Amino acid sequence: MSQVDRLLPAAAPATPLPWKRGVAWLLLLGPLFFLSYGFANHAAAARASVPSFFYGWERHIPFLPWTILPYWSIDLLYGFSFLCCRTPRETDRHALRLLTTQLIAVACFLAFPLRFAFVRPATDGLFGALFASLAAFDLPFNQAPSLHIALLVLIWVQFARLRTHWFWQLVIHGWALLIGLSVLTTWQHHFIDIPTGAMLGLFCLWLWPDEGGTPLRRVGQRSARRMRLALAYALGALLALALAILVRALAAPLGWLALSLAIVAWNYAHAGAAGFQKHDGRRSLAAAWLLAPHALGAWINARLWTRRRPQPDAITGDVWLGRLPNTVDMHAGPFAALCDLCAELPAPRGPWAYAGHAWLDLVAPDADQLLAAARSIESLRSHGPVLVACALGYSRSAAAVATWLCLSGRCPDMDSALALLAERRPTVVINAALRERLREVEQRLLKENVMPDLRQGSGGNAANDPAHQDLPPDTRQAALKAAHQAEIAAALLGLSRPVDAFSRMLTIAALILLVLQVDTSGLWIPLTMSIAFGIVECGFALRCAFDAPLFASWARRWQQGIVPQDDLAAFDLALKESGLGRQPEPARGIAERTAGARRLLRNQCRCLALQVGAWVGGFVFMFLS
Questions:
Q1: Which positions ≥6 away from 76 have C-beta within 8 Å?
Q2: What is the pLDDT of residues 48-77, one digit of tens each?
Q3: Which pTM value belongs to this model?
Q4: Which of 246, 281, 242, 280 shows the shortest CA–CA distance to 261?
Q5: Cβ neighbours for 332, distance < 8 A, ≥ 6 positions apart
Q6: Among the options 108, 390, 411, 544, which is catalytic?
Q7: Residue 390 appears among annotated catalytic residues
Q8: How do residues 82-125 score in pLDDT, each as one tens digit?
């Protein structure tokens, strides 16, 4: 042995494939498949009438007998797929996906059985023998979701991850596509079975991911805010599902939307940001497909909210704040690093340094998350200018930058940091919950002596603060009270957004049904009422959206020592000169204005309740007639 050989470390022994574990799983899954699948088939055959779901154009799909070969080949690939697993964990995850797919599909076959509507032409020879053996086991039921397609998705993923030559990769993808098409050309399934089967396979892939824990595990603390958002998304999912049932032509895309919103609702209620499965800026294959409708809506929403100020803003010389960019934006800007705080959208890929912290939208991150993001910003600065971004660049990313400003000592306290953010990026929105978390961060930094408590002045007395030194104690106390009232009003008006989003969904759904001229006598009356109430609700939502940042701005200013009465009088005068109102005599106080904000929100909720009532009345009328 040479001296060089002695210096080199010994190569690690190759890890043996867990084939015995795979065989054990196959011994369980094989009999379960045939027993449960056959039971569902015979249960559907015992029913007096089983409906079919197909489109007229499907009659033009050719019957190709030779495609029974790729159709049958999935049975062989089912067993070989376990050989693609390199570790016991991969084997268990793959088996759990197959098992979950089987259980969900059979449950759907039993609850909503469907029948294949066409009569398959007679076939002889080898292909005829294969069709005969298939007919001996498989009756024309067990349609949607296609278990064949669901299993294909899981098996395809296993083979696609193999590191092979590009030619064999092409063979793998080509044969998988052929298997997918064969369910139509063998006249085994209708079209609707394919997207539903693909969604089932992707759902089980999402449920048992390669990286991280399962979404069945709770992440984060349950809060009223998260549960309200979960409820809003769940209602949206139910609405999309109802439309999918009513509008058969759009059943597949609306069902996709319903599943996407249901997963987002689950993430807010239980799984947290981990349910979006975003790692290193990219989501898993399953999350990317399943959540695509929600991601598209989130992207459009972000672009609409930031259309008047799409560019990022420089907070300091090398830290910028803005919306989540695309690749073009990153190349066009001076950025050498990206700090991504968005869970619902993928980040652009490129040569820049990257740090990701997946946070739920509209939910305040905790102090540990804020500090972790601030440390990532400081670390990324070694590469050059850093862009800190979330979907809009208004709240999550702003809170992270505020934390970094205090952690790095660039601002003496959180009020100064928020004031700097408001000056450099006026669109920043820090609600009451987020402000409370930032206060927690500030207190932790003070206890750890990371930042000096400069608010106390050199003499250690808060009265030495220049923002308050000219105010008597009673006036200062009144200003703080008014600031808290304004914060509460801003938080209440912030609830207008989910109310408005749900109202818009109801209005758009009603418009779609009217445009498509759904053939249900009398349904147009509640639909028209829903649209009318939705238009009125939109007016209240616009007013809430106008007032919310005003109350938030007042809260920030009054906490810095500005007298509320003088500030409100100046605001009324500016409003009058802008032609948006008249100056009342005397000027209204903050109590009257917060009462008006509550009335706006109540009226908006009443309009939404009337919309829901119109829909419920329409459904009741439809079922009774």
A1: none
A2: 777 788 888 888 888 888 888 888 888 888
A3: 0.70
A4: 242
A5: none
A6: 390
A7: yes
A8: 888 888 888 888 888 999 998 888 888 888 888 887 777 877 77
